[in-house]
Amino acid sequence: MRLQDKIAIVTGAASGFGAGIARAFAREGAHVVLADLNEAGASEVARQCGGRSMAMHCDVTSRSDVDALIDRARERFRRIDVVVNNAGWTHRNQPLLDVDEATFDRVFAINVKSIFHMTHAVVPVMRSQGGGVILNVGSTAGIRPRPGLTWYNASKGAVNLLSKSMAVELGPDRIRVNAICPVIGETALLEAFMGVPDTPENRQRFIATIPLGRMSRPEDVANAAVFLASDDAAFITGVEFPVDGGRTV
């Protein structure tokens, strides 16, 4: 098992990519702390993970919630080996001038400021224990943006770049930081990303831009996360890791 007895925190873990990552980590031997606003959903995924996995309510835009998450994880497990900043949000696909300020602020708070909070909370812990792994779920939207998602694209561009900068700064502390960049995926946010009803015909318009001929799935992102969190990736840091079926080629 590639993550045997590692302690991992996954945000946005009640569904979608986060749930897939949590399940995959557990299969590889990790003890997972699943954080989500939807504590009931996270608890169900934690039950599926088995072992010593646990769920916690957490608003990743709140520093006090993130601090409480880290404190609880340390009380239970004594250390934190891996953090996956997966929680994310988008505005509906629409002209950039139609997105209001409150929506813009929410997108950046969930997608970007949450990583600021988590970094302040967990980096001192990882430094004290001699290292760790931080995985930020960015997006191909921050590499090759689609029209209609300008402000979301900008937030994920920030995630992708800050991951690289964190990697450079935290490398001497033996903290590896990488960004996982999925293409549009089969998750609850799909219709918002498309901006049109989720029909086979509308899906096909997006699939046509992906050389491997399908959207991303939670297991695709989870497999990438397992690799990047494991010792197999011990010399890999600061990468934008596309999980995109060739979309960004």
What does this structure look like?
- There is one protein chain.
- Helix 1 packs parallel to helix 2 (39-49) and helix 4 (101-129) runs parallel beside helix 5 (150-170).
- It is built from eight helices and seven strands, in the order βαβαβαβαβαβαααβ.
- Helix content is 45%, strand content 15%.
- It is α/β, with parallel strands linked by helices and 249 residues long.
- It starts with 6 loop residues before the first strand and ends in a 6-residue tail after the last strand.
- 47% of the residues are buried.
- It has one domain: 3-Layer(aba) Sandwich (Rossmann fold).
- A seven-stranded parallel beta sheet has the order 3-2-1-4-5-6-7, sandwiched between helices.
Radius of gyration: 17 Å
Assign the CATH topology: Rossmann fold
User: At the first level of CATH, what is the class?
Assistant: Alpha Beta
Structural class based on helices, strands and sheet pairing: alpha/beta
Largest sheet, if any?
Answer: 7 strands, parallel
Low-confidence stretches: none
Helix content: 40-55%
What order do the helices and strands follow? EHEHEHEHEHEHHHE
Task: Measure the end-to-end span.
Answer: 32 Å
The number of helical segments is 8
Total number of β-strand segments? Answer: 7
Mean pLDDT: 96
Instruction: Strand order, main sheet: write it out.
Output: 3-2-1-4-5-6-7
Strand content is: 5-15%
Give the CATH H-level superfamily: NAD(P)-binding Rossmann-like Domain
> How does the overall form come out from the CA principal axes?
globular
* Oligomeric assembly: single chain
Number of domains: 1
CATH architecture: 3-Layer(aba) Sandwich
